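Dock PMT; give full complex structure.
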Amino acid sequence: MDSATLHKDIDSFFDSAPPLKDSAKITDKLNQFIQFDSPSSEGKARVVCVTSGGTTVPLEQRCVRYIDNFSSGNRGAASTEYFIRAGYKVIFLYRRGTCQPYCRSLPEDPLLECFELADASDFRVRQSHSEAVKGAIGNHHAAVAGGLLLKLPFTTIFEYLQMLRIIASSMRSLECRAMFYLAAAVSDFYVPWKSMAEHKIQSASGPLDMRLMQVPKMLSVLRTEWSPMAFCISFKLETDSKILLEKANMALKKYKMHSVVANELLTRKEEVTVVTENGNISVCRDKTRPGSDVEDPLIELLVNRHSTYIKDAST
Ligand code: PMT
């Protein structure tokens, strides 16, 4: 696709999107977060935008039905914890209701399962969950109070892409200290807002015929226009291992990414391959350590590559 057609598609996507609620508030929060610098960072803080969870495509304006993209948000939440440990400030752009940083060791319904009634007027943490709850609260509080974590939720593809654009332009001034780590599962097709039914589609009208437009890939404009100096990592998810690396390589070149993390649905928690222009690097979870994450060595590798990128840019 030539650049003029891509820009036309992007303009028509944003023109057709319902305006983002609270966009001025989000911009203010972002600017404050990015400008707040702890004394230890000496004005050189690195900021990463981690995207996480899947976007939805509403089928009705007063939405009852939608198409969803699979992602539990585990990758984004775990990666956020390791980026913060490495000293990064993280803008966590996540799908409402998906996995959150520091909550991965809590049970599925933390409120009902972690707590018990002490008596009619008081409740307490169950002994069996007290370490996990203390860790989650302590780490989360330290990250937020230390200005290292800003969480911004989205649900639809319209919200996600509008927020990504605002984040990218807020991070522009950081130049090469900015990083994008795009782990969200982003919809490929959408119904333009203006041609979408307002009310619930009636099943009595018979089979549903619906034409979905292609969501323009924003990766190349993010890379070349929205935040051109940022270090950009995208993800490639496939279920067929035979085509995975080839597709990741294509994305690396086509969208001028600095690396593409290739993963297969079934093994995504065990291993990933980081595809770069100098070759592929396989990254595995340390199986000798129970409870270890593949994100631990993955983030270490990406942080090192980002350091080299910053060093090269300054010489
Ligand atoms: O959340 P978990 O359950 O832990 O699973 C993690 C994960 C498998 C979701 C994650 O590791 C992952 O692979 N995320 C990307 C999934 C995806 O959308 O892959 P894709 O091949 O369809 O897209 C590739 C890249 O293009 C992505 O970085 C995406 O942000 C971007 N994209 C996709 C569609 C689109 N219209 N515009 C985009 O910019």
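Observed: The chain is about 35% helix and 20% strand.
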